[in-house]
Structure formats: structure tokens, C-alpha cells
Task: structure prediction
Amino acid sequence: MAIAKAERLMNLALCLLGTRRPLSKRELRSSIEAYLEAGSDDSFNRMFERDKDDLRELGLVIETVENLDGETGYLARRDSNRLPPIQLDAEEAAALGLAAKVWQQARLAGAASGALQKLRAAGMPEAEDSYDIPHSALEPRIPVHEAAFEPLMLACRDRRPVVFEYRKGNAARPETRHVEPWTLECWRGHWYLAGWDRDRGAERVFRLSRITGKVRSRAGAFTAPVPDVSTVRETVESWAGETATRSARIRLRTDCGYPLRARALSVRELGDGWDELEIPYGHGLDAWLVEFGPDVVVLEPADLRADVVDRLRAVAKG
Result:
């Protein structure tokens, strides 16, 4: 069935792209074998409307035109469905190559690889294999260990409600959650889902590692509007108590700690391979700073410095 639908969509797209004038439903039905096999006019109309919506969702710009006789016709102009020439320099091409490597162990690996091949065929410059070296020092990865990732990714893409069992951090047993999934985001090595919790009638964020069992899709449309931007990271930070309430001063080795530099309120060169940064300070910052080991020295406040020292001593003791 999936192959038959894909073939039908392809034939419809070719008809709409290949015509110089709008084609009516009647003409499209007589040109596409699958439509000829439709049992009735109602069956054909439902099939055609679904196919037209699917093509538009895939990005095809389909115009609806009414002729002098009042009959509605459809076409997809080539100039409206053609991307402008893609101009990338070597550095931009290398960045895309590195981004594609992120998904080598996930479902998106095929799509990422195929996109790179198309760009290269279109003339994207080949960098000096800085991203094709098998043992390159720079190997970005986003870990995807949770079984819930793939079904949730597809549900977010297709706007399908889902049901799953979810165990809170302080709960002994999991609870059934009915969710309209919006987006997935990786933060601090963990994947989170943002969506509308139907049972609670509010936006919620779920950590994928706490989802137990299978994620099951449900029929029907979303009942709540999908926001243009879902602030997953900010929500998780807030729930974890990591919202910054003041600032801290740290010393950071030059060319190290780029995540810290991205959050810095100010940066001052100290010389001798060190910089001084002012960064937002909230609950959980001490645990994050410890991850950078000897590349970070806390200057103030004193309580943050003491917390980092205590953590480092605990690590040293094993």
C-alpha cells in the first residue's frame, strides 16, 4: 500500500509539474491509472484531495486556477518549485559534512547522506576532507540510545498524537500519558520531548529515558495549537532549578570551554593562555564546571568555588 501511494503521488506530481496549463480533476483522473481504478467519484475525490494535501505538505507549490467555464484546474509551476542555485564555500561545506556525521547512527543517517550527495552533485565544493577523514579529531555525535526516539521523531513530523508509559523521577510506577508531540531536543546528553499533555491540559516536557514500553500512535488531529518555538531547553533548565539568578567569574583556558563562552556575559583576555569570563550563575552550575576539569578555575562567588572544589575532591577520592 505504501509503495502504491508513493507511486500515485509521484505520478500526480509529474502531471502537475509537466503541464503548461491547469489540469482539471477530470483530466488528472484520466491520466493517472490509480485514479482510473477508483470505484466511484466520491472515492476518487477523497483520494485526490488527500494526495494534493500530502504533496503540499512535502513542499510542492500547487496552484488552483479557475478557467473561463468555471472549472477548477491545478498546476505546479516549475519556477515556483525550483530552488535558487546553492552557493557554498569550503568552510560551509565542511560544516554541513560535520552536521551530517551527527546522525550516522540514527534513522536520519540516510537522509543526511543523501542530502550531501545531492549538494555535491549540484557543485558543492569538496573541502580538503576535513570531515571525511575516518579518524578525524573532530567527530560530532548526538547519542540516540532511547527506543522512544524514532517513533516520537516520526510522530512529531507527521503531527500524530501518541500514548506512552512515563515514570517520573520520584515515582515508583509509570503513568500513562496522552501527548501531542511538538519537538525533540538534546540537552546535556539527554533527549527531551516537548508537547501538549492532554490529561493535564498543559504543555509538558518529557525525558525520553523515563519512557517505558512502546510509544503508540493514535489517530486524530491535534487539539492544541503548535507553537512556532518550543523552548525545551529553557523549560528543562527551569524545572532543574538551573535558571540563572546571578553571575559568576571564572578563569578559562584560551581555546577551551566553548559552551561556557557561548553563555558568557563578558570575556576578558588575561594572557598566558587564560581568559576571564562572567557567566550566568544558577543551581547546577558547579556540576557543569567540574566537567571542564583543569581548564576552569572559579574566582567568585566563594560558595560556587567551594562547591566545585568539593566535587573535584569527591572525584579524586573515587
The longest strand covers residues 175-187. The CA atoms of residues 166 and 211 lie 5 Å apart. The chain is about 35% helix and 25% strand. The radius of gyration is 26 Å.
